[in-house]
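Handout, section B. The chain below has 203 residues.
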Amino acid sequence: MNPFDTRATLLVRIRDPQDQAAWVEFVDLYMPLLHSYAIKMGFQDADAADAAQETLLRVSKAIPSMQYQSDKGSFRGWLLTILRNTLRLHASRAKHHARGTGDTGMLELLREQPDRQQLDLWEREYQLRMFHWAAKRIQSSFQQTTWKAFWETTVDGKSIPSVAQELGISTGAVYIARSRVLASIRQEIELAESWHDQPAEHR
């Protein structure tokens, strides 16, 4: 089975409780996204981690009855709905127990449909997570010098001439390294998006 087939069937594979590898891959992709979004919504680290884990538990229970239809929202949108519902429950519990994450303003925000700002936040967190997830997966495919040329100029923000001097290569070689790695990351993300943006309906 090629990588595309693996990603294209991941949402089907995680329905099988015996397919632990599929669930590990799913959690590796989405746990940091859920946790980061909760943090950005104002939750403390421990509460955000609990909410992310609870969201994934809800997903694992709901997946067996999920159906895909072209006129429904994407899986990513469905996942955001589950996360926000989970966060709302956590905030409500915290309010009743006089903890810091359950203020009225947060509860009201979570009770409402996400506005453009909240959707943009989810999209930014998703894009960032996808980038790092894809980069982690393809890093071993490149020589260390190529990877450092890409990472230091693209992520760390160092100048191309300084990195070229540091690595003992030409500036042209740095440009080529950046281009090759970015192309590979984009391909990895496109393959992943072939399955996790499928329309989803939970029945």
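Note. The first strand starts at residue 66 and ends at 67. Compare this with the example in section A.
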